[in-house]
Amino acid sequence: MSELPIDKPGNALKAWLSQTPEKALEPGQPIIDPHHHLWDRRPRPELPEGSRQHLRYLADDLLEDIRDGGHNVFNTVFVECRSMYRANNDAFDPVGETEFVQGVAAMASSNLYGESTRCCGAIVSFADLTQGTEVEPLLRAHIAASPNFRGIRHAHTWHASEDIPNSHHPTHEISNLLSRNDFRDGFRVVDQLGLTFDCWGYHTQLQEVEELARTFPNTTIIVDHIGGPVAMGPLATQRDSGVFKDWEKALQSLAHCPNIYIKVGGFGMPSYGWGYADAASPPNSQTMANAWLPYVKTLIEAFGVDRLMFESNFPVDKVSCSYTTLWNAFKRITADLGLSDTEKNEMFYGSAARAYRIPIDDQLQKALTKTSLPVTSRYKHALDLLECFQEARYEDMLGFFSPNAVTIQHLGPYAGKENPVTEKTVAFMKKHNPPCSYTNRRQTFAHDRLVEQHTVTWPSIADRSTQSIETVIIFYLDNQGKVRRLEEYGDPATL
Question: Hey, what domains does the chain have and what are their CATH numbers?
Answer without folding.
Answer: 10-367 (3.20.20.140), 375-494 (3.10.450.50)
